[in-house]
Amino acid sequence: MIQMSKVTKRYGSDAVLQNADFHxxxxxxxxxxGRSGSGKSSLLKLLYRETEADEGDIRFRxxxxxxxxxxxxxxxxxxxxxxxxxxxQKNVFENIAxxxxxxxxxxxxxxxxxxLLLERVGLADKKDAFPNSLxxxxxxRVAIARALFNKPSLLLADEPTGNLDKDTAADILxxxxxxxxxxxxxxxxxxxxxxxxxxMHAKIWTIEDGxxxxxxxS
Length: 218
Ligand SMILES: Nc1ncnc2c1ncn2[C@@H]1O[C@H](COP(=O)(O)OP(=O)(O)OP(=O)(O)O)[C@@H](O)[C@H]1O
Prior knowledge:
Elements: E1 2-11, E2 14-24, E3 29-33, H1 40-47, E4 55-60, E5 63-64, H2 70-76, E6 77-81, H3 92-102, H4 107-120, H5 136-148, E7 154-158, H6 166-183, E8 186-190, H7 194-199, E9 203-208, E10 211-214
Parallel strand pairs: 3-8, 3-9, 6-7, 7-8
Antiparallel strand pairs: 1-2, 1-4, 4-5, 9-10
Helix pairs in contact: 3-4, 3-5, 5-6
Bound molecules: adenosine-5'-triphosphate.
């Protein structure tokens, strides 16, 4: 689904990725791990074109991503962040509906889809609540519903459990794993959590010294 070959990404003269190769197959449930500052967020930003590579080739379904407009790419790729990034002035429904409005969905469809998704993530009764009245775990469930609203083929999650306690983090990862199974959404999650890594049936990629390696289990 996504292929990266011989990609170099520099900030000034420092290369955070150097000749790096990486790939995700359709249907993968993958985890990206690596030390702080190793370039995990930079890799995700390259995949959804928040930043551009200095050298190398990145393809989404065989097409160079530089040839795909950001608008189209972001319909295909959903994003979830550590800090949730919900709009504080908007309620749960409005936060989710924005994703549908951005792609011109009719309001009836938006309402129906929001209802289904909120039920799925366990927040059917929080439609009118504002983010600051929700727990961290609930806010992340809203962010996940928003990211999945337009049925993206790929979901990227940058430390989605980084701001959550251990049990809530486990619940969120379980939800992502289930949604992966149900929707067949390809997922790439950045996480530091060794314990959780062991519990998940994920392909594990490690980033180290500017390169990516896939862990192969024998
Ligand atoms: N916009 C930027 N300008 C300059 N340097 C940057 C920029 N973004 C990231 N960097 C640098 O690139 C390196 C990799 O950062 P990145 O955020 O990708 O790492 P990370 O593995 O996600 O780290 P963490 O686990 O701490 O979030 C770091 O040294 C960081 O300071």
